[in-house]
Design goal:
about 350 residues, alpha+beta, 5-stranded mixed sheet, 5 strands
Length: about 350
């Protein structure tokens, strides 16, 4: 949660908590700790993105089912610090201590070698047998070489450990930006990508988004179970990933809704991509893994919108979402662009 609300005064917190509980009751949301955390922040008004997401769901009469509630929590509330990060911090602290020891040893060895060389030089001036001086220098150089080899081996080992830590951090970051069910980007990664794409789009480059939703997915889940529903979502994600370009970002928006952000693509290009996705999914055959049963075909409705310089990304997604719902209302299994929103509004 935002730090501003970590320790509010009692009356204020009680007021927000009461509103949160009433709001959850109106939406028939179980008052679990994670759900309460989401709605407390919503009524506290401390998280604009969370407020926009919830209001969009309410405006379109979306059910706050368990998956939607969990998505809201993971996207906007859950802390990002994981056990991996804590463990990494401890390992780095240990490595830094070892590195200091190595450097201290190396400095001490250098001082010892300089002292020996200085002593040999003094002995040479005092007329000591040159053969004895050469032998002494050779012995010291051999010891120095042994110490150096030992230090190099230690540094090499710690370098390998640093590589492991770096890989662990990379994987942790990828995990924090990835939806676990579909392996697509999650809302956090989507928001970051959109912010960067918006900067370029404000300079005149086209930017479009498409949003797809499975038709009659609740009925499908009720008939075949959530396990099969998850299988369908993974299939959707696979098709979406295959049909967009390398520079595009396919992501899970929430529930059964997926989204793709297409930089440097205008409305027509994005619509073509959406139509390829729709056709590919309509042609897919879904087989129940446990029984081998071939299930009914699925279809998707897709909304498409293009960024307008100066607007917020929330406005762009909201327009795309309205196009999606126009596709739903128009019979499903179709692609609808934002242009049809204007025609629908003009018609009545």
């Amino acid at each position: 949660m935002d730090s501003d609300f970590d320790d509010p005064d009692y009356d204020y917190a009680a007021s927000i908590a009461g509103r949160a509980m009433r709001g959850m009751a109106e939406q028939r949301i179980p008052p679990t700790p994670t759900n309460f955390a989401v709605w407390f922040q919503y009524f506290a008004g401390s998280h604009d993105d969370l407020r926009n997401a919830i209001e969009l769901l309410i405006d379109h009469n979306r059910p706050f089912d368990s998956r939607t509630n969990q998505n809201l929590f993971e996207a906007y509330i859950a802390p990002q610090v994981s056990a991996v990060v804590v463990n990494t911090s401890e390992r780095l602290h240990t490595l830094m201590g070892t590195a200091r020891e190595f450097l201290t040893t190396a400095i001490a060895d250098n001082r010892s070698q300089m002292q020996v060389i200085s002593q040999v030089a003094d002995q040479g001036q005092a007329g000591v047998d040159p053969k004895a001086l050469v032998a002494q220098l050779m012995n010291e150089l051999a010891r120095a070489a042994t110490r150096t080899t030992r230090l190099e081996a230690g540094f090499a080992e710690k370098t390998r450990e640093l590589d492991v830590i770096r890989d662990s951090l990379t994987k942790s970051e990828e995990h924090a930006r990835t939806d676990t069910l579909t392996c697509l980007a999650n809302r956090r990664a989507l928001d970051e990508f959109l912010r960067k794409a918006q900067t370029t789009a404000d300079w005149g480059e086209p930017l479009s988004v498409l949003m797809l939703d499975i038709d009659h997915f609740k009925t499908f889940n009720d008939n075949f179970g959530h396990g099969v529903g998850d299988q369908v979502l993974r299939l959707m994600a696979k098709v979406l990933r295959e049909k967009v370009r390398a520079q595009d970002l396919p992501a899970r928006y929430g529930g059964e809704e997926l989204i793709a952000v297409l930089p440097d693509a205008d409305l027509a290009a994005c619509t073509d991509t959406a139509e390829r996705i729709r056709r590919a999914l309509a042609e897919c055959t879904i087989t129940r893994r446990s029984t081998g049963e071939v299930l009914p075909s699925i279809t998707v409705s897709i909304g498409v919108a293009q960024y307008r310089p100066g607007e917020t990304t929330a406005d762009l997604i909201e327009r795309c979402d309205r196009a999606l719902y126009l596709a739903k209302g128009g019979g499903r299994n179709r692609v609808v662009t934002e242009n049809e929103l204007d025609r629908a509004f003009a018609a009545g």
